[in-house]
Amino acid sequence: EVQLLESGGGLVQPGGSLRLSCAASGFTFSAYAMSWVRQAPGKGLEWISAISGGGPTYYVDSVKGRFTISRDNSKNTLSLQMNRLRAEDTALYYCAKSMDYYESGSLDNWGQGTLVTVSS
Amino acid sequence: QSVLTQPPSASGTPGQRVTISCSGSSSNIGSNFVYWYQQVPGTAPKLLIYRNDQRPSGVPDRFSGSKSGTSASLAISGLRSEDEADYYCAAWDDSLSGPVFGGGTKLTVL
């Protein structure tokens, strides 16, 4: 059974940093792209970053230069380093697994999410 | 404003057939697969349809997807109360070199 367990969320001041982690199990981690998707309170889904099984990455414009996605295939872990956080980054952050090696839009398994709140 | 356009709301009565549209462009729907997700309030999204019209195991055949040109649709037949949820379409966008979601459609079962 595929399991994705996010951690690292919390309350942070504007301009601060957080590092989210996602522990994956139940599948061959290195064979699939992984993504971070966020959902602001009461809003829709936003795909913010993806990383293929071997490393090529994608970032939505609003987080480019501030967020860094990475993966450790030896530890089955996905991470998201978030710097220079803004109030508009407040959201529930989901870790999700793709159906494919390269991301194509296909997220077949999702974690339960970790909440990030950016506020002074 | 989302790259993929969905109606904000849809509704139907139990047993009815409802369709939700997703409109895009040649750089996304027109040249790539479409995916549909269901999100019941308070829970994580769930993949409902992949590669335009394929259902993951466990998804009832009441759910079906289709694509034509730069638009796609999700159809739900035999509507049930547990279908009340938010539905999102998604696709890879060649211009953005990344995946995008539609804005979501809130389905109400009357």
Global structural class of chain A: mainly beta
Structural class, judged by helices and strands of chain B? mainly beta
Quaternary organisation: heterodimer
Task: Give the number of DSSP strands of chain A.
Answer: 11
Using the CA coordinates, give the radius of gyration of chain B: 13 Å
Shape of chain A: globular
Q: Outline of chain B, from the CA principal axes?
A: globular
Radius of gyration of chain A: 13 Å
User: Which segments of chain A are poorly predicted (pLDDT under 50) over 5 or more consecutive residues?
Assistant: none
Q: DSSP strand (E) fraction of chain B?
A: over 45%
Unreliable stretches of chain B (pLDDT < 50, length at least 5) are none
- The overall average pLDDT of chain B, rounded, is 96
Largest sheet of chain A: 7 strands, mixed
Mean pLDDT of chain A comes to: 95
What count of helical segments of chain A does DSSP give? 0
Distance between the termini of chain B: 28 Å
Greatest interface by residues involved: A-B, 23 and 27 residues
Proportion of residues in helical segments of chain B: under 10%
Task: Describe the model.
The complex is a heterodimer of chains A (120) and B (110). With 120 residues, chain A is mainly beta. Chain A contains no helices and eleven strands. In chain A, the strands form two sheets. In chain A, strands 2, 4, 5, 6, 9, 10 and 11 form a seven-stranded mixed sheet that branches. A four-stranded antiparallel sheet of chain A has the order 1-3-8-7, with no helix packed on it. In chain A, strand 9 (91-98) and strand 10 form a beta hairpin. In chain B, 0% of the residues lie in helices and 45% in strands. The mean pLDDT of chain B is 96. Chain B has strands at residues 9-12, 18-23, 34-39, 46-49, 63-68, 71-76, 85-93, 98-101, 105-109. In chain B, the strands form two sheets. In chain B, strands 1, 3, 4, 7, 8 and 9 form a six-stranded mixed sheet that branches. Chain B has no helices and nine strands. Chain B has 110 residues and is mostly beta strands. At the A-B interface, strand 5 and strand 10 of A face strand 3, strand 7 and strand 8 of B.
